[in-house]
Each structure stands twice: as C-alpha cells, then as structure tokens.
Amino acid sequence: MQNITAEQVTKCLDYPSLVDALREAFQGKITVPMRHHHDMEQPNGQRESTLLLMPAWESGKSVGVKLVTVSPENGKKDLPAIQGIYILFDGDTGTPKALIEAKTLTARRTAAASALATSYLARPDSTRLTMVGTGVLAPNLIQAHAAVCPIKEVAIWGRDIKKAEDLAQEMNNLGFKAHAEENLEKAVRTADIISSATLSKTPLISGNWLQPGQHLDLVGAYRPDMREADDEAIKRSSVFVDTYAGAMKEGGDIVIPLQNGILTKEDIKADLFDLTQGEHKGRTSAEEITYFKSVGHALEDLAAAQLVDKRINGI
C-alpha cells in the first residue's frame, strides 16, 4: 500500500484538472452513503470537535473512505482545523491501494468544488475576488476560483489583520494583485465573487452589502448552528448547494433559513448534480445575485483520490 504525502497530493491536484475531475464525477455513477457525523465535547470550555467518516465507491473501480476531525480551536495552536487520512481500495479485490494525506486532499477538493460551482454561477468576466477568512482553505480557494474566472485583484479580510497581510503577500508572490482589507463591508461591496471560509457562529456577511451580479461562495460554517451570511443574503439571492441532502442537514447557512421560514427546499435552484448534468443552467442574467453553500461530499474526495492514484501510478 502506498503512502502518499501532502506534497504529492499538491503536485497531482492542479485546479484545472481537479475541477474537470469533479465535473465528471458529478455526472457519473459514484455511490455515496450519507456520511457519519459525530460531535465530540472538549474539556475546559473549548468548542466541540467533529469526527467525520465519508465513504464512497465507484463499482468495479475504486472504494474510498475519509476519516477526518475538525477542531475549531486548532487555530489558537497554529494547527489546521481539519486533520485526517484517506484510504483508497481497489474496487474489484478490495485490496488497500493507498493511504493519502487528507488535509491537503480536503482543502484542494473543497476549493475545486467551489470553483466548479463558480463556473456556472459567477459572471464569466469576474475579475475581483474577496476572500473572507485566512485559514488553510483561503489560498486554495483563491487559486481555484482563478482557474475558472479571470481573477486579477484579491481583497483578503480576516479577524487578524496580520494573517490577512501575510496571505496577501503569499498571493502576490503567486502573481495575484492582493491586499489585506480591514473593512469587510467595503471588501464585499467591491467584489465580483465573495468566497468565505470561516468557523463563524454568527453571520459575517450582510445581504444589504451585496451588489447586482455578484456571486457569494460560502464554504465554512460546517455545522447547523454556524453561519457566514444573514437572512437578507438569502432573500436577495438565487440559492444553490453542493448537494441537497448535505446542505439541508449540516450547513447553518441553509438549515437556519429553512427552520425560520426564510427559505424552502423549493427555493433552492439546483445542486452540483443538476448543474453538471444540465438540469439547470446556473446563472440566468448579469444582474442576478447567486449564493452557493458547500458542506462537502464524499464523491469529491473519491474523485480527487482517483486522480492522485492515476497520476502517481501513471494509469
């Protein structure tokens, strides 16, 4: 069984290729049971951690399962919130094929899923991106969105301005024109695409700030009691999700509006299956505000792991 490192995962999963792999996976026949989600209490008043078990298989080809923990307090310890491993098996014999470092796999597939949605929901001429959050996902999301839109300018907002400045410098070193922005309202109002990846329990983004033609990509707030955008953002937007089952159960940016009657299931325009399979065209006008909520899906992990396996072994 191969042990595949974070460096190998990064090398294998360039964003244009990964976005294409996810598009094909959502169009294909991968089986995905509902993931196991277990909240775990932590001592000394710390926020709960979460254990996720995410299986998926493609008949006769591959079987995979991701084991992940999400620990919101890790930022205080200079550690990524997401930790985990991915185990890939041969779909015919059941033989373990690879043990893949999952923090990088998760970050890249999560960013690529947002970029896949953006390819249907953002204006094709979107050049200005605002990144809300400065964690591990942030640089991945910036690069992934730039793989599907002509992103030239990046504003970065974070609760810690020093972290925003450091990320801006990192992005500038990669060829972006990036800067840290202390005023979140200004950063949102002046963007074409707003991507948010935080662990906020209360809304950061006001719907009153949104402008015609914008695309809002919500990646954080992975629990039902967490939110990154308020009810007004829902009211003003056409709402899309990665999957109906996951978003309606796990993501507070969808669950809470459903509970308070701001949103109904019928109001959700489409998920990534509908978009990739042509059941919904996505954005319908240049003035439309689009809203995408992602909670993650095991199909994405398997597609990413298959691409890693293919490239490592020259299949």
Gyration radius, rounded: 18 Å
Number of strands: 14
Per CATH, which architecture of the largest domain? 3-Layer(aba) Sandwich
Q: Main sheet: which strands, in order across?
A: 9-8-7-10-11-14-12-13
Per the CATH scheme, the topology name of the largest domain is Rossmann fold
Largest sheet: 8 strands, parallel
User: Distance between termini?
Assistant: 16 Å
Write the element-wise H/E pattern from the N-terminal end onward.
Answer: EHHEEEEEHEHEHEHEEHEHHEHEH
Q: Provide the structure class.
A: alpha/beta
User: What would the principal axes of the Cα set say about the shape?
Assistant: globular
Low-confidence stretches at least 5 residues in length (pLDDT < 50)?
none
Beta-strand content:
15-25%
Helices and strands in order:
Layout: E1 2-4, H1 6-12, H2 15-27, E2 36-40, E3 49-58, E4 62-70, E5 82-90, E6 96-101, H3 102-121, E7 128-132, H4 137-146, E8 153-157, H5 161-173, E9 177-180, H6 184-189, E10 193-196, E11 215-218, H7 231-235, E12 238-241, H8 244-250, H9 252-259, E13 268-270, H10 272-276, E14 290-293, H11 298-313
Parallel strand pairs: 1-6, 7-8, 7-10, 8-9, 10-11, 11-14, 12-13, 12-14
Antiparallel strand pairs: 2-3, 3-4, 4-5, 5-6
Structural overview:
The protein is of the alpha/beta class. It folds into two domains: 2-105 and 299-313, 2-Layer Sandwich (ornithine cyclodeaminase, domain 1), CATH 3.30.1780; 113-297, Rossmann fold, CATH 3.40.50.720. It is 35% helix and 24% strand. The strands form two sheets. Strands 9-8-7-10-11-14-12-13 form an eight-stranded parallel sheet. Strands 1-6-5-4-3-2 form a six-stranded mixed sheet. Helix 2 crosses helix 3, helix 3 (102-121) runs parallel beside helix 4 and helix 3 (102-121) packs across helix 11 (298-313). GO terms for molecular function: ornithine cyclodeaminase activity; oxidoreductase activity.
